[in-house]
User: Which sequence fits this backbone?
């Protein structure tokens, strides 16, 4: 068995080593230190002597004995080795020799490293992953701690220390990002908002990376990007909610002027928030029934309604089908216009002429009471007007205002005077194209307007198949040229021919009466060649 003094021996060895260390560092008094070391050494020597005696005694028991089990063989071999070493002090000598060699090697390395590390910073640490000295960094998930310290020291030595951007820079960046995304998301559709957000986020990331790479200035790019995303989300949500409410209000307003389906389509396609007046080129359409006052007096309210409602329905359907906005009904009168900003069409003059011909044909098939068909008078004018909501907070009307509207209304009244069905101005004729048949009516001076209107009658396409009617229209145009040049006798002669060719045409009679009225009251210098229909 191992002597109980072995534990005390271990404590004494540790005390002896600590005393030698204190003696080497001169931390204690030298004389007292030496005495302490010697005293401990003497106690150790006594223990070692006793241990050697015990070992000799133990080995004496095994020297001639025969080991029978594996445990006995192991013990005997161990005792033999220990006895050999300690009995001749071979272990101590070997340890002393190795310590001397290590000490000499260490001294040599210190002398070699001295010149290499003199005046330098030397970091010593583990790089092996098994040592556990690993930390997470932005460039690597597990970097040895000594390498992290080395990079920090290197940055300090090169004066390349990252710094935070000034607060004013970050605030300016947040403000710019917020404004750009807000304007992009609020002024246009959601596609523009997404594009603005992507561009701003990309620019912030590029600027932040460039500043850090070139000047080691750290911008708050992540908060700025988050600001842009949140701004886009808030503005888009707000815009969608308000736009939907505006679209519903716009749809309700438009149903007054167009069918519900058309109103819904307009509101869904337009990017407008109100119906404020704006300039537009429109074709204004005025229509009423010939002889309606006498007819309503004859039929009475009930029968008049039975006649009026089908007429208004047919007229509205034809106009709406061709993209017009039916603005209002005034008794038997209908006012509509084409190419409103909320319902644009480039061929508005063509559509207006097509609607006029269709309405005249369809209305003629309606019963006007007593088995007689209805007759309409239509005036169409094309030009600039202001289109939008007009009125007060109590009542608003989406309509158009301007001289073009007045011209269209006056042409409808002039049609009554001249016995024509459809009168249009020169702009409408030019815009309608070659698919229609027109007859020149000359320059008309209408009520409330100083400048004359060059008017044309829109004829039924069937006229082109009747040679007599084409000849009448051509001769009537010649009569108008004579009328405008004060060639009164020639004008009257040609007008007489026109009356013979088409006795139902009232225009030659009207012009003949004007010739008789004007020939003695105007000279060629005073005459402007206009037919006055302003009293209509």
Assistant:
């Amino acid at each position: 068995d191992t002597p109980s003094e072995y534990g005390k021996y271990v404590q004494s060895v540790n005390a002896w080593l600590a005393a030698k260390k204190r003696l080497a560092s001169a931390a204690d008094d030298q004389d007292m230190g030496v005495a302490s070391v010697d005293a401990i050494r003497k106690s150790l020597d006594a223990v070692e002597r006793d241990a050697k005696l015990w070992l000799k005694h133990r080995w004496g028991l095994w020297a001639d004995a025969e080991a029978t089990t594996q445990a006995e063989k192991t013990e005997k071999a161990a005792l033999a080795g220990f006895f050999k070493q300690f009995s001749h002090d071979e272990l101590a000598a070997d340890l002393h020799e190795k310590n001397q060699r290590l000490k000499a090697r260490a001294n040599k390395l210190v002398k070699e490293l001295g010149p290499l590390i003199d005046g330098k910073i030397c970091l010593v640490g583990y790089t092996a992953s098994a040592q556990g000295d690993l930390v997470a960094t932005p460039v690597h998930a597990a970097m040895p701690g000594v390498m992290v310290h080395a990079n920090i020291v290197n940055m300090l030595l090169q004066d390349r220390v990252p710094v935070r951007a000034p607060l004013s820079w970050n605030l300016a960046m947040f403000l710019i990002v917020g404004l750009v995304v807000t304007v992009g998301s609020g002024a246009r559709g959601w596609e523009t908002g997404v594009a603005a957000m992507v561009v701003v986020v990309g620019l912030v990331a590029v600027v932040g990376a460039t500043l850090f790479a070139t000047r080691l200035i750290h911008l708050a790019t992540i908060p700025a990007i988050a600001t842009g995303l949140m701004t886009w989300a808030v503005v888009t949500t707000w815009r969608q909610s308000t736009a939907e409410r505006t679209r519903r209000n716009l749809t309700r307003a438009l149903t007054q002027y167009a069918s519900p389906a058309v109103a819904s389509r307009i509101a869904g396609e337009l990017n407008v928030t109100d119906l404020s007046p704006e300039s537009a080129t429109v074709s204004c359409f005025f229509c009423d029934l010939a002889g309606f006052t006498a007819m309503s007096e004859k039929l009475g309210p009930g029968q008049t309604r039975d006649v009026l409602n089908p007429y208004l329905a047919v007229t509205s359907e034809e106009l709406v089908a061709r993209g017009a906005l039916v603005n209002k009904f005034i008794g038997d009168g209908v006012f509509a216009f084409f190419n409103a900003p909320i319902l644009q069409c480039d061929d508005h003059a063509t559509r207006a002429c097509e609607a006029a011909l269709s309405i005249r044909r369809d209305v003629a098939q309606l019963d006007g009471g007593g088995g007689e068909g209805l007759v309409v008078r239509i005036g169409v004018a094309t030009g600039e007007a202001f289109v939008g909501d007009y009125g007060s907070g109590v009542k608003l009307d989406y309509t158009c205002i301007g001289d073009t509207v007045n011209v269209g209304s006056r042409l409808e009244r002039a049609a009554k005077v001249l016995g024509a069905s459809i009168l249009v101005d020169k702009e409408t004729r030019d815009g309608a194209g070659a698919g229609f048949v027109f007859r020149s009516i000359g320059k008309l001076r209408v009520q409330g307007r100083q400048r004359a209107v060059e008017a044309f009658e829109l004829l039924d396409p069937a006229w082109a198949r009747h040679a007599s009617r084409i000849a009448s229209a051509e001769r009537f145009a010649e009569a108008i040229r004579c009328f405008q040049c004060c060639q009164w006798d020639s004008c009257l002669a040609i007008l007489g021919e026109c009356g013979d060719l088409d006795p139902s045409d009232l225009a030659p009679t009207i012009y003949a009466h004007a010739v008789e009225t004007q020939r003695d009251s105007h000279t060629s210098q005073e005459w402007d060649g206009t037919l006055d229909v302003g009293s209509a």
About this structure: The longest strand covers residues 376-391.
